[in-house]
């Protein structure tokens, strides 16, 4: 699946309208961002069931600010519209594959249910 360039206009719809979404916040001047790009692209080809998106933090400064991006690259993973991973730094290929496996296996519904139960107590 092709990597989607995300903007403020389609970010929320993409995150909430797909089961699993990985988002790479990057900038063209960022060396580690450019180094991570081939890893992100290769992973997108292995996982057609996952939406891979990129946010150019220079072009989408308001979106980057709303996402509280402090360092790039930053990778976020969403499952069923819920943020389940948020980390700055480029991941090596094996770590990215491990992250995707963990996100796929993560029971976000149970986590949300236990969180709301804890808030009720």
UniProtKB/TrEMBL annotation:
Pfam families assigned to the protein according to its UniProt record, in alphabetical order: Thioredoxin
Keywords: Disulfide bond, Electron transport, Redox-active center, Transport
Source domain of life: Bacteria
Name this polypeptide is given: Thioredoxin
Functional description taken from the UniProt entry: Participates in various redox reactions through the reversible oxidation of its active center dithiol to a disulfide and catalyzes dithiol-disulfide exchange reactions.
Gene this chain is encoded by: trxA
CDD domains referenced in this protein's UniProt entry, alphabetically: TRX_family
NCBIfam families: thioredoxin
Transport found in the keyword field: yes
Record-stated family: Belongs to the thioredoxin family.
Keyword check for Transport: yes
PROSITE patterns found in the cross-reference section: THIOREDOXIN_1, THIOREDOXIN_2
Protein's organism: Candidatus Mycolicibacterium alkanivorans
Residue stretches making up the Thioredoxin domain: 1-105
């Amino acid at each position: 699946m092709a990597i989607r360039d995300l903007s403020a206009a389609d970010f929320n719809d993409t995150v909430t309208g797909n089961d699993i979404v990985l988002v790479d916040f990057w900038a063209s001047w960022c060396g580690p961002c450019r180094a991570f790009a081939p890893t992100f692209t290769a992973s997108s080809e292995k996982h057609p069931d996952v939406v891979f998106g990129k946010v150019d933090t220079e072009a989408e400064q308001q979106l980057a600010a709303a996402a509280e991006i402090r360092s790039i690259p930053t990778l976020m993973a969403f499952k069923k519209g819920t943020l389940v991973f948020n980390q700055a730094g480029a991941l090596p290929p094996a770590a990215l594959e491990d992250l995707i496996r963990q996100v796929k296996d993560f029971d976000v519904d149970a986590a949300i249910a236990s969180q709301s139960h804890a808030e009720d107590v």
